[in-house]
């Protein structure tokens, strides 16, 4: 099956049609606006959209998509532009449809632990409102992405180990399909077995099957107390054994993060701690009861001591928790400071947890072989590992890409995936056949059936 | 879009082709075998398949599906036949493909909390093996369904409130598509954002998009200790307020079940307890630490007392827990005994939790208006409600169906769904447009694209 990838359209006619229903300040062809929407946070080649359109309602979005379909113009949805694999870069130009003005919260349902909001709200803005209700939306990435972007990329972040990824936290969505038709998928019931799960098909499809304009998502109660454990081990194997040991004893940390030894050294240096650089876990628990936290930390201590931990730091003091997590949270910045002036490339494979030691070992070996001073960090509770690699020229970038290809091959051999949370975008498209084999043809069949003119974010997901 | 629903095929030619690759004992046209595979546990009209075929491997299944596609013969997958909406009844006859001989467990991965098994294994057989590893597979219905059936119907059961439904517990599947091609979807990584989520599209599609032959699913550690709370309230509203109160305080029960007052009366009578019949919650907790359980029960007590609970029973004694849960588990049998000789109809709507009191009230009113002595029971933690209604003739059945249509309409008005866990099958197909509107056309487009000859379980899901 061949999916169309060339477009010839009349931009002026399109804009004339757009102006019949949208205000002037919803449409821009300015260089500045086009440039702003030409790149995300990644190093992928920017591409200028021909026109930027701001939707202010689902109706607006439907109108624009319908026109895009009629005029056969590529249309790429835009939230905050914080993706890491070029997901919202309009590689075939056309329209970039920004949802950033659609920030309304339609309803908070405290008794149902749900909120309905428009796609353009950022997770920080959403959670600021939810905090007043004692609730929060969990699957948030490091960057201040929008709700729509989080859903389109099936984002997750550091708290997936307990609360799941975006797909696990969405109940219903309003979606504009390629023909401009608006459908609602899912419902406000947490249990649903009524027909095909379009909800989870569209989540993570990166705007290639439909554009999400509004969503109802699950929330969790904000806990009163929290604790943090920072534990270092001689080997990565011991650190991962500790992860398994903690989970086998029924503990469900909110975060269960791994930092490789080289990275740990950079972090300790950055914050002025004189400590041996060793594979380290950052573990966070939350609870409504302080005594539960104390008991959980005791279990972490026992498991860690049983694995010959070299450093164990446990605290239920909120300020001390913040202090420890700031180190983890600023890891990327500390690394960037160390390699000032260099570009950084972040990989994103995920494997079964038991395969993490082998995965981390392979990454280290590949970086050594290619002369790259990279570091490893992972969401150990989910088996998701990021290698961050500095480079400064084309040869360096080629080396980085060799390492990335090698570690993806290893992740797939170990039963994992080429991307745990950043999505396919441009960067991982070349690995789709390798990972999914003939299932890619099935994905393509669905794409072709739902977007026969290939107007929705073309050039993504598929090789 | 018109989906084909008439079939003209040469049965003898099909069977001749089947015999070229399968043994004689894998193919049956006997009346007994056809009758066995003509009905599930529901009251939906039975339909005899023309031939029953037992797959013993994914290759077998692929061969049979490929032949079905070539001969344009309907093919319906079969696990244990315990569905409640006619899901595996071969309404257009053709082939019933039984997976019941595919019961192998390929691998248990204790450190990853995963197991890979063939689709025909029952959940009881699977969990018996997993118990030796201190693990269990959570989303199991009351009947001893197969893994494939559980996935095909996105089943859930009483522990969804804590562990999620089938869709939340599956990581990878081997699937035979309509053309006989075998694909694998998902991976052993718990985090996946690589391309379209075919995994969750196929889960719950009731064998209409593909036939699952093997799956890797998530497991949870078996906890050492458990507790049970049985609490009765004056009103359903108070009972549901208690559910919300418990969850707002961060407790995550393993089960959080609601029994309406009439049903409670029948249960107390059945086990010889002299107690006022009132809306009642059955709550179960599990933990690796007994002190945690005690503390949780204290919270349940405080919440319940704050809502003027009329009866509070709390226990951490395993035998007493079993005793209390047996009452809940045998609820259906007790009801059946009370209405011996009558047929029973079980409905399956789900709504946001806050809407449960209104939902339960509407069900009661509809049953009263239609002269039906039905009862209500629900998985309160998920907002899923079942009304069980006795009837004994066509007029009675018509009344039952009127009530069902009325309560579905109410569930949808309240933001819920026509089916929380039983699936669409035959029974709910008529309500799909009502629930999903134009999203049904999108589902149909996907069905048409992936199964153009409509051979996979035709006559289900779509009206």
Helix proportion of residues of chain A, in percent?
A: 25-40%
Structural class of chain A: alpha+beta
For the terminal residues of chain A, how far apart are their CA atoms? 13 Å
* Portion in strands of chain A: 15-25%
Low-confidence stretches of chain A: none
Number of helices of chain A: 16
Rg over CA atoms of chain A: 23 Å
Shape estimate of chain A? globular
In round numbers, the mean pLDDT of chain A is 96
Secondary-structure map:
Two copies of one chain form a homodimer.
Chain A: H1 11-21, E1 27-28, H2 31-36, E2 51-54, H3 58-71, E3 75-78, E4 95-98, E5 105-109, E6 114-118, H4 123-131, E7 135-136, H5 147-152, H6 160-163, E8 170-177, E9 182-186, H7 198-202, E10 210-218, E11 220-221, E12 225-232, H8 236-248, E13 255-259, H9 261-270, E14 280-287, H10 290-306, E15 311-315, H11 318-329, H12 331-338, E16 343-346, E17 349-350, H13 356-369, E18 375-379, E19 384-391, H14 394-413, H15 432-436, H16 439-450
Parallel strand pairs in A: 2-4, 3-4
Antiparallel strand pairs in A: 1-2, 5-6, 6-10, 7-11, 8-9, 8-10, 12-14, 12-15, 13-14, 13-18, 16-19, 17-19, 18-19
């Amino acid at each position: 099956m061949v999916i169309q990838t060339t477009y010839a359209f009349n931009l002026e006619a399109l804009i004339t049609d757009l102006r019949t229903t949208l205000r002037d300040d919803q449409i821009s062809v300015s260089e500045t606006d086009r440039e702003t929407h030409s790149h995300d946070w990644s190093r992928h080649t920017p591409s200028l959209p021909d026109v930027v359109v701001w939707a202010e309602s689902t109706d607006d979005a439907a109108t624009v998509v319908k026109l895009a379909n009629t005029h056969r113009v590529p249309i790429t949805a835009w939230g905050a532009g914080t993706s890491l694999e070029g997901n919202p870069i309009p590689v075939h130009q056309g329209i970039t449809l920004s949802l950033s003005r659609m920030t309304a919260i339609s309803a908070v349902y405290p008794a149902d632990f749900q909120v309905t909001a428009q796609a353009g709200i950022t997770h920080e803005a959403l959670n600021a409102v939810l905090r007043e209700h004692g609730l929060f939306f969990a699957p948030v990435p490091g960057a201040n992405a929008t709700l729509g972007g989080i859903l389109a990329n099936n984002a997750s972040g550091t708290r997936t180990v307990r609360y799941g990824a975006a797909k696990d936290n969405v109940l219903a969505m309003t979606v504009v399909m390629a023909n401009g038709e608006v459908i609602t998928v899912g419902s406000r019931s947490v249990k649903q077995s009524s027909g095909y799960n379009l909800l989870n098909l569209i989540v993570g499809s990166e705007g290639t099957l439909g554009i999400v304009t509004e969503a109802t998502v699950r929330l969790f109660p904000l806990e009163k107390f929290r604790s943090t454990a920072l534990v270092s081990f001689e080997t990565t194997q011991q650190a991962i054994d500790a992860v398994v040991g903690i989970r086998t004893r029924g503990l469900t940390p909110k975060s269960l993060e791994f930092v490789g030894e080289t990275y740990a050294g950079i972090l300790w240096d950055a914050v002025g701690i004189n400590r041996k650089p060793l594979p380290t876990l950052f573990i966070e628990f939350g609870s409504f009861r302080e005594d539960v936290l104390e008991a959980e930390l005791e279990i972490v201590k026992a498991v860690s001591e049983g694995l010959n931990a070299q450093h164990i730091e446990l605290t239920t003091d909120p300020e001390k928790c913040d202090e420890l997590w700031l180190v983890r949270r600023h890891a990327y910045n500390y690394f960037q400071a160390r390699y000032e002036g260099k570009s950084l490339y972040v990989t994103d494979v995920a494997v079964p947890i038991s395969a993490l030691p082998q995965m981390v070992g392979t990454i280290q070996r590949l970086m050594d072989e290619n002369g790259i001073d990279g570091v490893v960090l992972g969401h150990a509770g989910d088996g998701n590992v990021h290698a961050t690699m500095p480079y400064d020229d084309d040869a360096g970038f080629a080396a980085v890409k060799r390492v990335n290809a090698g570690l993806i091959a290893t992740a797939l051999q170990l039963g994992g995936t080429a991307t745990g949370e950043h999505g396919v975008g441009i960067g991982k498209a070349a690995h789709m056949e390798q990972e999914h084999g003939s299932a890619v043809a099935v994905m393509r069949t669905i794409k072709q059936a739902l977007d026969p003119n290939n107007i929705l974010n073309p050039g993504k997901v598929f090789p």
